[in-house]
Amino acid sequence: MLRGSTWSISSLSAASIYSLHLYGVSSLNICWIRRTLDAREPNDANWIFLFGPVLAVWFVSFAVLLFATFRFARRQMDSTYRSKRRSLLQYFRYLIMYGAFWVVCGGLYYSAYLRSFSGRSAHHIELAFMVALGSYPLLVGVVWGVNTDLLTHLQGGDPVLEPNVGLTEHFSTSLRKDLMKYTTVGIIRSLREPSEDSPVRRTDKSRSQPLSDPNISRSQSMSSASARSDEFEDGGTHLWYAEKKRLATTVRLNTSKLQVYYDKLGFTDYAPRVFANLRAIAGIDPEAYESSFVGTLSEIASEGKSGMLFYFTSDRRYIVKTMTKDEHAFLLRMLPSYHAYVRTQPSTLLCRFLGCHSMQLPVGWDKMFFVVMENVLSTHHEIDDRYDLKGLFAPVLQPPLRVFLKDDQTARLLSPPQTATKQLWHDHEFVARGTYLNVASTARLELLTQMTSDIGFLQEMDIMDYSCIVGIREFDAETESTELLPKNAIVSADAKKVYYLGFIDILQSYGLRWKVQNLVLSLVRDKRTITALPPPEYALRFLSFLHAHLLRSSADGSASFKSMTARSSFNYGTL
């Protein structure tokens, strides 16, 4: 777009100069606008079309940098502050060099112009003008060397940078770090702030204490965890689902050269007592829950395929994930039903929501919403296989073609190269690898009953596009105890493996966007391979897939293997 605008303006300028007959010989042939020999008869077009764009670019750039500096002075976030400060300094160096270069060139050109470009002095000025004009690439290189600390690198030293800031650190990386930091400390402050004080008032002491101070008094902490299950049965607690606990705290940001205080970080905790009760139902100790976030400041946030940011706590027991405004509103709408269901179904495989929060970032940013969830694959052991199942159509694959080549010396077996191991498998690979849960018949029946109940609830809530996460790892019965496994973990019938199960991504309501997607994709693709389905259809297909593949018995697996082997016998041959 910028290139097109530049060529459009250049073409318009050339057409204007040609139509006005302003073209001709200029000084040093630096442009094709003709010059005048008499200073009393200046060629205005020369100055307008040559120096006009130069001045326009400089003033526009200066205005943009001035505006950015003003925004920067409004106290940015920590890592973002350091990255943006460094970027602004680099831009200002280029702008100063650009302005000084054209001031010198313009002054020399004007001096030669006053001398009518004739005489010995004018000749010397033109030579100086030529040298100055040709020095632009060298000046750009000098500024680039200053911005990249090139001289320090050549001398074998370390570049002078802010702490924890890499030479090529991207701004978005810094932003993710800041988001992780402030969501974490906001959650910690919310846990330590009594629900009874919110949103009516806060004491001056808690307001003035920096949010990043790790030594905040714990005298008021965990008060929100007093919301027991029996309290929700007494009535009058429907207001707790709409409760909001707002915190406006002072955040202290430290750098090596200056100290910055950003004091308008707005943090909101939604339905704190309800989520405290959900944590109690999940058997989560309040102090252990808080300690999981205390050690999270060194973790690195990452971005998922959906564009949402998420990060794990230091013990990897919980996940903090940003969500859209629509997902946030839907979660609060379904919270009463979700809470009631989880209370009556303690063994549910539904994703455990443990907190819902929002944060108002610096000026110019919208409010960000995020949710805290229990990690389905929470374990200190290494997970061997991970599957994300949506119930998509996945036909049983044939084994790779195997061909024997015979010669006088030996026989060689040729087969396609094995694909590289992936971190996360999906429906297609799950079926092709013949994976299933090798559990006792009673456990299989209990799982099927629970899955049917959970999927029925999701259908009732008009939810679709959810997944079943499956994690499989080795189990050592001699050194491990089944009592220490999480509720969503199941030991195989032969006590050699552990299966982790859970339903995730349960905040997708079947709205207009999904209906349009279903209408379009149904015309061009097989409906068995799309996820944009009405909740009843999605639930039926999802449950059928789990019953046919995930929960099939070992006898079914043997029959399936024999059938696949029989069909693949035609793929063998001898050349």
List the helices and strands and how they pair.
Layout lengths: L1 H18 L24 H29 L5 H37 L5 H15 L1 H12 L2 H5 L16 H22 L11 H5 L35 E11 L4 E12 L1 H10 L4 H9 L7 E2 L5 E4 L5 E6 L1 H20 L8 E8 L6 E8 L10 E5 L12 E5 L4 E4 L10 E2 H6 L8 H20 L6 E8 L14 E3 L5 E8 L7 H13 L10 H16 L3 H14 L4 E3 L1
Parallel strand pairs: 8-11, 9-15
Antiparallel strand pairs: 1-2, 2-6, 3-4, 4-5, 5-7, 6-7, 8-12, 9-10, 12-14, 13-14
Helix pairs in contact: 2-3, 3-4, 3-5, 3-7, 13-15
Summarize the structure.
The protein is an alpha+beta fold and 575 residues long. It is built from 16 helices and 15 strands.
Could you characterize the architecture of this molecule?
This protein is an alpha+beta fold and 575 residues long. It is 44% helix and 15% strand. It has 16 helices and 15 strands. Strand 9 and strand 10 form a beta hairpin. Helix 2 packs antiparallel against helix 3. It starts with a helix and ends with a strand. Keywords: ATP-binding, Kinase, Membrane, Nucleotide-binding, Transferase, Transmembrane, Transmembrane helix. InterPro entries: PInositol-4-P-4/5-kinase_C_sf, PInositol-4-P-4/5-kinase_core, PInositol-4-P-5-kinase_N, PInositol-4/5-P-5/4-kinase.
What are the low-pLDDT stretches, counting only 5+ consecutive residues below 50? 160-171, 197-226, 254-263, 396-421, 558-575
Largest sheet: 7 strands, antiparallel
Counting DSSP E segments of at least 2 residues, the number of strands comes to 15
Mean pLDDT: 73
Full CATH superfamily name of the largest domain = Phosphatidylinositol Phosphate Kinase II Beta
CATH architecture verdict of the largest domain: 2-Layer Sandwich
* Secondary structure category: alpha+beta
Amount of beta strand:
15-25%
Distance from first to last alpha carbon: 59 Å
